[in-house]
Amino acid sequence: MLKTQGLFFGYGMNFLLIGIDSLRADRLGCYGYPRATSPFLDRMAEEGVCFDNFYAPGIPTQPSFTTLFTGQLPTTHGIVAHRGRWTLDVQAPFLPELLSRAGYSTVAVDNLADHHQGWFSRGFEQYINPREKGTFPSCHAFNAVAMEWLTQNRTKPFFMFVHYWDPHTPYMPDLKYRSLFYEGDPTTENEGSLAPFYKRPLMDWWSTRWLDVMATEWPEARGKQITDIEFVKAQYDSEVRCADEGVQQLMGYLDNAGLLDDTMVMVFGDHGEELGEHGIYFDHHGLYEGDIKVPLIVHLPITSAQGKRVIDLVQHSDLSPTVLDAAGLPRPESMDGRSILSLLEGGSREIQDQVLLTEECTWMAKWALKTERWKYIAARAPDFYGKPERELYDLHSDPGEQVNLWEEHREKAAELEIQLEELLWRRLEAAGRSEDPVLTHGITLGKKMFD
Ligand SMILES: [Zn+2]
Fold first, then answer.
1. Which residue in 34, 92, 200, 392 has its CB near the most CB atoms, within 10 A?
2. pLDDT, tens digit, for every residue of 170-208?
3. DSSP secondary structure of 22-35
4. DSSP state letter for 343
5. Using DSSP, how many helices (H) and how many strands (E) does the chain show?
6. Which helix (H) or strand (E) holds 357?
7. Which residues of the chain carry a pLDDT beneath 50?
């Protein structure tokens, strides 16, 4: 192993990746949120490295975690929708497989392989699913399994992946968290703020399984309809706080077991969540900042990596190359991502493309191109929510992406459309693809609602 400022890189370092589903960056204190949703993650960011521009190049869950484990962009691996019919090519690199071959113990505490697609179990010697189908147990249930595995099975360096679901709908935190950020009567305050939500196609499902159930448990709301959107947002925030405590518990275990100084920990979101912005309620549809900008906080016990904020554009595809780099293993050429280890150590890396190309076709068949200032969104199929085919936002003057400038700035829109299509087709051709995967795959979950 090579010693770098007190830390050993190479075989011998452990890795813990904690993916928190549906966690958007701007609901954490370390990203500027005023509520105390993340006291532990804030401290972790202060003592470690916090990435200000970490983005998902493909959403939602399946494309995002596939991007993470393959180190490939969606244009390369082709998984562009959740619960689609496509499977991952067996030739695609997969991080746990590479680590297992190199002698690591590999374990996942997750349900993706069982309930969605089998490739997520590739390379994991143990794949433990603590989640019954249709249920969303809290992070503490996942931690219990993870800590038991660490206690009983750890005989050599490990790679552990843990997937929390707390901030995913339905936001129904344990009772002790429900008043954390909300007081009052959610059936009378801010009346009408949820009216558009109750007109949405998904409302019946959410209402019977979620809000009506919560109304029976909230003393002020018993038997009535919840009408205050701030109540629902507060429950999302409470779920974030719960996940924060989950990370604290797992890191505390590593510390007590004497493992923390030999373990690199990465905490991140797979995609974000819309909380009513853009008329999208409590789900991850669309390519707005709330959906694609997620947190990345890294614990690396070296002095130069303490309290660092990184502004470089980093994507999920960069995490596997980073782990391989830290483990002293070569990065397969078929990975698109680049190691961010030098950024973690306080240095810089080769200039990367500062333009983000991102997609989804679970609910909306869309591509977006994001530059430092502009975001251009192009739909390949009619929008589930009736949004226009083309959207252009000036992120400097309108960071909330509320004013579509497509009509007003047609020249800029045309320029970005050309840039988007050129970048997209250059990447597809490099990956040996002759068709746009978003078009070929087609909308998956949203299609059911159209039909
Ligand atoms: Zn997800």
1. 392
2. 999 998 899 999 988 899 989 899 999 888 877 787 888
3. T--GGGSGGGT--S
4. H
5. 16, 18
6. strand 356-360
7. 1-6
Cα-to-centroid distance, 61 and ligand 1 (Å): 3
Query: In order of start, what are the domains of the chain with their CATH numbers?
Result: 2-171+232-344 (3.40.720.10), 177-230 (no CATH), 356-450 (3.30.1120.10)
CB atoms within 10 A of CB 249: 16
The encoded tokens of residue 234 equal 């507060």
Q: How far apart are CA 172 and CA 81, in angstroms?
A: 26
- Look-up of token digits 């530059």: 371
CA atoms within 13 A on the CB side of 229: 15
The mean predicted confidence, pLDDT, of the chain is 91
Structure confidence at residue 238 (pLDDT): 98
- End-to-end Cα spacing for the chain: 57
Give me ligand 1 centre to Cα 418, in Å.
30
CA of 295 to the centre of ligand 1 (A): 13
Check: CB of residue 356 under 8 Å from CB of residue 312. no
What is the 23 CA–ligand 1 centroid distance (Å)? 9
CA of 158 relative to ligand 1 center, distance in Å: 24
Determine how many CB atoms are found less than 10 A away from the CB of residue 138.
19
pTM of the model: 0.95
Nearest partner of 338 among 323, 357, 358, 360, judged by Cα: 323
What 3-state class would DSSP assign to 263?
strand
What is the 357 CA–ligand 1 centroid distance (Å)?
19
- Residue 5 pLDDT: 46
Tell me the CA–centroid distance for residue 256 and ligand 1, in Å.
30
